[in-house]
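User: quick one, fold this
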Amino acid sequence: MKCHLRALLSYLKQIEFDIINITDEAHATAKIVVQNGIISDKNYNDSLHIALAITNGCDCLVSFNFKHLVNIKTIKGARAISNLRGYGNLDIISAVALIQKGEE
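Assistant:
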């Protein structure tokens, strides 16, 4: 895994990042994620992570969090909320998939 982590960190250095703020809209969207049973209330930070990706127009959320984020229930639920709120498609993918794509 250390090799994968080094590859990921190397890849991430190539990306220009924007710092985003947590807004009332993001909190409202996170509550919708919880209310729809996509993420439990005890994992609110995960729902906020999804909401921030949605409300900032991200097309992809990359994570190693397989328990709460990178699973079919969350992926489909987050995509549905993103589309219903007019933000378009949001994909949630494994960081490992990003690494593998970069190594080809």
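User: anything notable?
Assistant: The chain has one domain: 2-14+38-103.
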